[in-house]
Design goal:
- It is built from six helices and nine strands.
- The protein has helices spanning 6-11, 19-28, 65-85, 94-105, 115-126, 136-143, and strands at 31-36, 44-47, 55-60, 151-152, 161-163, 169-176, 179-184, 190-193, 198-202.
- The protein has a six-stranded antiparallel beta sheet with strand order 4-9-5-6-7-8, with no helix packed on it. Strands 1-3-2 form a three-stranded mixed beta sheet, with helices on one face.
- This is SprT domain-containing protein.
- Residues 57-103 form the SprT-like domain.
- One of its GO terms (biological process) is response to stress.
Length: 203
Amino acid sequence: MTKLSATEVLKKYIPESSIAPCLKWINDYRLQLTIKKSRSTKLGDFRPAFNGKPAKITVNGDLNKYGFLITLVHEIAHGVCWIKYQHKVKPHGKEWKDIYTTMLALFIGNNTFPVELEQFIVAHINNPKASSCSDIHLLKALRAYDKNPVTFLEDLPLESKFELGSGRKFIKKEQKRKRFLCLEISSNRMYLVSPMAEVKPIE
């Protein structure tokens, strides 16, 4: 079996115009990229070099190409921040934000992202979150490019029944600040659920 080059691998996951800059960062900062299966708890992560092993970044392979690129840049920025500051700064502090937004801004205005998505990315750059999942507007805009678009809890009307990925079934009740109060059908207990939780409407 022929081993694919890093360029050929990345071509499957990110826009072509972003491949060269990302490869340069990965090589310059000696980062090892691993593409993972879908993980419900995170889109990607960074681990510093340890015991002679290179610094590692991982990204979920089920992301669409725009979400993959943003997550990849997010994790590369962690690598650069670690190399420069190590434990001296917070993981998502000002130093990381400056590095991340400077890198991501390179892909604005050059047709890397669709025009309708770019406005959300610009807003994200101006106020970056610890994760793109924390940026509700960006997350929703990105999900429009998924092969199988999902339904979010906030899309359902009140009193709708729905099922989470875990199989637990709820009824959507009132909104409490940033989350929705939901009644679990089996236990009759109330829980707060994120408006961006992926749900399956049920009868």
